[in-house]
């Protein structure tokens, strides 16, 4: 089975711009979660989607949003980028047994 | 508040020696517990999980973890470390019973350095 894929792998944006990241889960997995990883804050949960519905949301401002499509692919969007949004954004799809499988991440740099 | 603690920022061990990476948690109910490993510029790789059953869980690459309910700990262990085990290790908890979400709460990570 193919693993979780994320595109793009690297992204450079400037403050005030917006960005969209994409995630394709493992075939058959219906849950997709997003996490932000930074050196200072570590790994923080952004949100989770299951069958196109947001099932849980972390403590992030409304500039961070996401959606899931009928084929379980997911996108997350960050509007009005700030320098502090520079991070590795990880997507994970969930096995029914509970474990999450992570993609390689998208490295976002905000200048 | 629900939390996961990894008290050691870094663990140093010689190749061939046993290793332990510590994790304690503070979560209500009976959580699911996980260990992940991250190599440079890579995503997280699943190592093992505990949901219920035997307190000693075996996982990938020779790793195992011991669940201790009374001490709310889930320490990662390996009998004989390899240089290639050097990486960043994360303990994670999925609270059970709160909702059906797969949300994970991660510890801060422990860097494992295995010297030849």
Distance between the terminal alpha carbons of chain A, to the nearest Å?
A: 37 Å
Structural shape of chain B: globular
Structural class of chain A: mainly beta
Gross morphology of chain A is globular
Task: List low-pLDDT spans of chain B.
Answer: none
> What Rg of chain B, in angstroms, do the CA atoms define?
14 Å
Major pleated sheet of chain A: 7 strands, mixed
Mean pLDDT over all positions of chain B: 92
Q: Outline the low-pLDDT stretches of chain A.
A: none
Secondary-structure-derived class of chain B: mainly beta
Strand content of chain B: over 45%
Question: How many strands, which pairing sense, and closed or not: the largest β-sheet of chain B?
Answer: 6 strands, mixed
Largest interface: A-B, 25 and 23 residues
**H/E series of chain B:** EEEEEEEEEEEE
> Considering DSSP H and I runs of 4 or more, what fraction of the residues of chain A is helical?
under 10%
Oligomeric category: heterodimer
Helix content class of chain B: under 10%
Distance between the termini of chain B: 41 Å
Folded structure, characterized:
The complex is a heterodimer of chains A (111) and B (116). Chain A has 111 residues and is mainly beta. Chain A has strands at residues 5-7, 10-13, 19-24, 31-38, 42-50, 53-57, 64-68, 74-78, 87-94, 100-102, 106-110. The radius of gyration of chain A is 13 Å and the shape is globular. Chain B is mostly beta strands. Helix content of chain B is 0%, strand content 50%. Chain B contains no helices and twelve strands. Chain B has strands at residues 3-5, 10-14, 19-21, 24-26, 32-38, 44-50, 56-58, 64-68, 73-78, 87-94, 105-106, 110-115. In chain B, the strands form three sheets. In chain B, strands 2, 5, 6, 10, 11 and 12 form a six-stranded mixed beta sheet that branches. In chain B, strands 3-9-8-7 form a four-stranded antiparallel beta sheet, with no helix packed on it. In chain B, a hairpin with a 5-residue loop joins strand 7 and strand 8 (64-68). At the A-B interface, strand 4, strand 5, strand 9 and strand 10 of A face strand 5, strand 6 and strand 11 of B.
